[in-house]
Design a protein that fits this description.
- The structure is a single chain.
- The protein is α+β, with helices and mostly antiparallel strands.
- The protein has a single domain, classed as Trna Endonuclease, Chain: A, domain 1 (3-Layer(aba) Sandwich), CATH 3.40.1350.10.
- It has a five-stranded mixed sheet, sandwiched between helices.
- The longest helix is centred in the first third of the chain and has 27 residues.
- The N and C termini lie far apart (48 Å).
Length: 137
């Protein structure tokens, strides 16, 4: 059975992926709070671009990209943060800072969340934007 040309299995898969992503963002927010980071926004949008989490650690603004997987058999979640994602995150972060008249320090983090039937694993890559660019050049 198809709906608007999309197979039902694809709809179920997209729904499951969204649920996993939402769960991962909740885990990421909990992790960040435990690290003393104040959560300012979740899923902040600038047009079609989105920042998963915007937090603050003292005077430091933190833009966080969250990637979640239900298994690490194929590739780790953080490997899904590609150059296009970095570009869009940078554009959205710039827009956020302009709209909020923020001129202070900031950084970009990646939180990789892996969920298995037995446990969850969270890897926090601080200042990942800077380090990512440094390894690409």
């Amino acid at each position: 059975m198809e709906r608007n040309g999309i197979g039902m299995s694809r709809l179920v898969s997209e729904s499951t992926t969204k649920q996993l992503g939402d769960w991962g963002e909740i885990q990421a927010c909990d992790w960040l709070r435990k690290q003393g980071i104040e959560i300012l926004h979740r899923n902040w949008r600038s047009g079609h671009k989105e920042i998963d989490i915007i937090g603050k650690d003292g005077n430091l603004l933190i833009f966080v990209e969250v990637k979640c997987r239900s298994t690490s058999n194929f590739s780790p979640p953080e490997s899904a943060v590609n150059s296009k994602k970095w570009k869009n995150l940078g554009i959205a972060a710039t827009d956020f800072m302009i709209k909020n008249k923020y001129f202070g320090k900031f950084r970009f983090d990646v939180l990789a969340v892996t969920k298995t039937p037995y446990c969850k694993q969270i890897m926090h890559f601080k200042d990942a934007f800077y380090h990512s660019k440094a390894t690409v050049c």
